[in-house]
Amino acid sequence: MSHPFRFGVQVNNAGPGTSWADTARRVESLGFSTLVMPDHFEDQLAVAPALAVAAEATSTLRVGALVFGNDYRHPVVLAKDMATLDVLSNGRMEFGIGAGWMRTDYDAAGMDYDRPGVRIERMLESIEIVRGLFGDGPVDFRGDHYVIDGLEGLPKPVQSPPPLLIGGGGKRMLTIAAQLADIVGVTANLRAGEVGPDAVADITPARFDEKLEWVRDAAGDRIDDIELNSLVMSTQVVDDQAAAIEATASMFGMSTDDVAATPLLLVGSPDQIAEQLEERRARWGFSYFIVQGLDTAVALEPVVARLAGT
Predict the structure, then answer these.
(1) Alpha carbon 234 to chain centroid distance?
(2) What is the DSSP letter of 172?
(3) What's the pTM?
(4) Which of 44, 83, 263, 308 satisfies CB 3.0 to 4.6 Å to 12 for a cystine?
């Protein structure tokens, strides 16, 4: 079953010459469903307060992180922040969480960069705790990483429960996402801790065929209830699609066919990009596309007007 198209924009600061609130209003006016933010320690606004301001400045725009790095906050703190955001936005929060992947964040903050399995297990414990705190009654939890002793999560979110977004590029993370999440983001495997050659080699259409097979196998009967998401690495709205694809292929060390088809790159005129998105939904089931930057959102307004909700 195909889900209707919807679109999000990932931004981390206000647009040039404008306020953060105006940036959020601009994203909403362009027809986008969601404003999301990365969660890193580099030059960006702090996620929770920025999302609260974005929600207050708008009336329909959904807000969330893509995604919260689990190791950066205790799950009790994250649950309270997200429940509060859902209350303040009147139920417009999307809860995205990941195990943490960017090695430079850990190094700069003096945190141990544990092996992926440990970070993933810690994330799983956090998800169980946060979901418990979103629900009714006190939470008792005894895990290898967290202990919660009879804590009632307050306030309670408006959504019951808020949609959970988990993304990944490796088999284990995508299996977890398919089993637990409402929104599954499929991306490159970032086990190297950076967006480098290994990640680029992992974004070919053939790799996405395999990744979506993992998701479908793990999801089982719930696959039709899952919204499949793609965070687009690069968007080029251009008149000469062939030339842009060839230049991008040379830059990434990919074939032109792979650049034209991978869901992580959009290249062409608005009409050509709309056709690409329809092809990617037909092939893989992706219906929720998130692009990066306000300028990209402006350039894609005709695409959003044509496809959103269809």
Answers:
(1) 15
(2) H
(3) 0.96
(4) 44
